[in-house]
Write a structure and sequence with these properties.
Blueprint lengths: L2 E4 L6 E2 L1 H14 L12 H4 L3 H11 L6 H17 L6 E2 L3 H10 L3 E5 L4 H10 L9 E2 L11 H11 L6 E5 L2 H10 L3 E4 L15 E3 L5 H8 L2
Length: about 220
């Protein structure tokens, strides 16, 4: 069965506002002022909690802050879990495109570097969890993207054929994951980096979800 696996943050949903709020809450809990700005720091937010904390400490002039990041990360996760869908929205047309794929007999799933429990909670809160046959998170396996194992597990759990699958994402991590798995990569061009993601040499750019059907039809048969 053909299969399309989606990244979550920055691909299916704009989670940047809630992620940035959680990072600032963690910084405040550690006695610092908020450092991240919605809109300006969205690209960092989509690279994960540790990336946001590292940027925050750099702006505070704290270098070599690995221990500080380790201390702040669980605080960030707790803050994020408590307000996971305050600002988050699905990208326009995303779920309509997912529904079209399913009607066309394409298996769909999610492979994210968000912890699985948080990903499950978010997709349930957004009312769309049942639209995806699989959901593999950062802690589902001992490894995470860009290791190909989580992607391949997402394909397997969705009932898909890895040889007839592709990954839709928004970052270099997704590009590297697809390359490691030997599958096509589609990168969205509506994120913070816009068409700049074309520099990562994906097999296709997705300008809007209305175009997904034709891209899938071209890349996997």
């Amino acid at each position: 069965m053909r299969c399309v696996i989606f990244d979550l943050d920055g691909t299916l949903a704009d989670t940047s506002g809630d992620l940035i709020a959680a990072a600032n809450a963690a910084l405040e809990a550690l006695g610092h002022s908020p450092q991240l700005v919605p809109g300006r720091d969205d690209a960092t937010a989509f690279r994960g909690g540790r990336a946001m904390l590292k940027l925050g400490f750099e702006r505070l002039g704290i270098t070599g802050a690995a221990a500080d990041v380790d201390e702040g990360y669980p605080v960030l996760l707790q803050a994020y879990g408590a307000a996971i869908d305050t600002h988050t929205t699905l990208y326009p047309g995303a779920m309509a495109a997912v529904d079209r794929l399913r009607r066309d007999g394409v298996a769909v799933g999610i492979c994210t570097n968000k912890p699985q429990g948080l990903a499950e909670t978010l997709m349930t809160r957004l009312g769309v969890r049942d639209s995806f046959a699989s959901l593999v998170g950062a802690d589902t396996l001992p490894v995470r993207k860009p290791d190909p194992a989580p992607y391949l597990l997402a394909v397997e759990q969705a009932g898909g054929d890895p040889a007839r699958s592709l990954l839709i994402g928004d970052t270099e991590t997704d590009r590297k994951t697809a390359r490691a798995a030997g599958v096509p990569c589609v990168l969205v061009a509506f994120g913070p980096d816009g068409r700049g993601v074309n520099a990562l040499a994906p097999e296709a750019l997705l300008e809007r979800y209305d175009d997904l059907d034709s891209i899938v039809g071209r890349l996997i048969v």
